[in-house]
Write a structure and sequence with these properties.
Blueprint (H helix, E strand, L loop, with lengths): L6 H26 L12 H20 L2 H4 L8 H27 L4 H9 L16 H22 L5 H29 L3 H20 L11 H6 L7 H19 L9 E3 L4 E3 L5 H11 L3 H14 L1 H32 L3 H5 L2 E7 L7 E7 L3 H12 L7 E6 L11 H5 L23
Antiparallel strand pairs: 1-2, 3-4, 3-5
The structure holds fe (ii) ion (2 copies).
Length: 439
């Protein structure tokens, strides 16, 4: 006979279990239907932890990736190349920020993630740490490792976590500029002197293996692959992506007139792919464990930059606190004046709300319009009545209008104009030579 303990505790437990079963079935159904999971959706702990680990690792790789090229900004051979390099390094910082923000939607704290990087508890793609000895290495690094990143991230744009997928779409657009300008740099060298062509060949030889290693260990040894594939966090395996990358690189290498350093590299008509020598996994694991070239210097540099930037973070926090106090004081005065003069009673009792609708799963909320309502719950009800009467969406946000801050129309130029004369930030600025595909 089944013994029951204290009734209410068991009932509560049963209820919890029942709700868990409902939640996990809803989650599984979304994954099976290739729908996006959003941050307010219920998700299993393992899914959340896997995502935080992968996104943190990705974010760390982006900000660590600023270093090998930052060192070349002052040595780049022309102002145009310096501007391109500055834009690329700035992009990598931006990619880090998009991704830390995505990890934060999952409940991770940015300072904890950075501590984990600085203390070596969380990994990153340490293959980008190989030294950039010559100007040609700067091109080879971008053509090969940013190229590997594009292959990997294009596949991740279909990842099941909505905020990550959307950040990746933006990152991929920018990475294709990184990739293309790297190829352009190398192509310029390939048209140069014999010494320049030699430095191009040597740089490609140094970066080929690190680029292959970017895809991680082989599927048979990859510890997190199976669950990540089942949850559709990853959409292709390490080996599939590595193969795709090699197939794309071969014709591009031909256009550059460089030999990829692999005697086993050849077209296999039966498989419809190139055969190649996989990266040396002992070396790969040694580098992943933090013992690769420049690992220690790069991490030390990162820690120093973080410590030296502490005053900026403190100043920003102090400024924010001061502004918040000023606004609170201003609101108090406003409120007193409103009561005294009984003006603006409508805004007090029926404040304005901005309404945002997510048209379907997987895309962001877009602004639909405004309405007045006495509180958030009624604002939501009215928003449903006003803006979603014809199946316009699947999720609604209402935000008090007075909580929103927008850029000043007068400052339009300062915010948006400078981008117009930086066309080199777009991949299309670097037309590939005739016959070169996949860039
Ligand atoms: Fe990046
Ligand atoms: Fe990049």
């Amino acid at each position: 006979m089944k013994m029951r303990g204290a009734g209410p505790a068991n009932d509560a437990e049963d209820d919890l279990r029942r709700r868990w079963v409902v939640s996990i079935s809803a989650f599984d159904a979304l994954i099976a239907g290739d729908q996006k999971i959003e941050y307010k959706d219920w998700m299993p702990d393992g899914y959340r932890e896997s995502l935080i680990r992968q996104i943190a690792q990705h974010a760390h790789s982006e900000i660590m990736g600023m270093q090998p090229e930052a060192a070349w900004i002052s040595r780049a051979p022309s102002l145009a190349r310096k501007a391109v390099l500055i834009a690329k390094v700035q992009d990598e910082a931006g990619h880090g920020l998009y991704l830390y923000a995505v990890a934060e939607t999952l409940g991770a704290r940015r300072e904890d993630l950075l501590d984990a990087l600085h203390e070596g508890r969380q990994k990153y793609l340490s293959f980008i740490n190989y030294p950039t000895l010559t100007w040609a290495d700067v091109g080879a690094l971008a053509w090969l490792t940013d190229g590997a990143a594009v292959v990997n991230q294009v596949s991740l744009c279909r990842t099941s976590y909505g905020p990550y997928a959307r950040a990746l779409v933006r990152i991929c657009r920018e990475e294709s500029f990184h990739h293309r300008q790297g190829f352009d740099l190398l192509y310029t060298l390939s048209q140069g002197t014999p010494a320049q062509r030699r430095s191009l060949q040597e740089a490609v030889e140094r970066w080929w293996q690190p680029a292959l290693a970017m895809f991680g260990p082989p599927d048979s040894l990859s510890t997190h692959s199976a669950s990540s594939m089942a949850w559709r966090i990853k959409r292709a395996t390490n080996d599939e992506l590595r193969q795709r990358f090699v197939d794309l690189c071969v014709p591009q290498a031909e256009a550059l007139g460089v030999r990829l350093p692999d005697p086993a590299l050849r077209w296999n008509p039966e498989r419809g792919h190139h055969d190649f020598t996989p990266p040396d996994y002992d070396e790969l694991m040694r580098v992943v464990a933090g013992h690769g070239p420049r690992n220690k210097q790069r991490l030390a540099h990162r820690r120093r930059a973080h410590e030296e930037g502490a005053w900026v973070r403190e100043a920003a926090a102090a400024h924010a606190a001061k502004e918040a106090a000023k606004q609170a004081a201003a609101r108090e005065i406003d409120a007193q004046e409103a009561i005294a003069q009984e003006v603006d009673a409508v805004e007090e009792e029926w404040p304005l709300w901005e309404v945002f609708v997510r048209p379907r799963r997987g895309v962001g909320h877009t602004h639909a319009g405004s309405l007045r309502a006495p509180d958030a719950a009624l604002a939501l009800h009215s928003a449903r009545d006003l803006y979603t009467r014809r199946e316009e969406g699947v999720s609604l946000w209402v935000v008090p209008s007075r909580s929103m801050t927008s850029s000043d129309p007068e400052h339009k130029d300062a915010y948006f104009a400078p981008a117009a004369d930086k066309q080199y930030r777009h991949a299309s600025f670097f037309p590939p030579p005739e016959g070169v595909e996949g860039l």
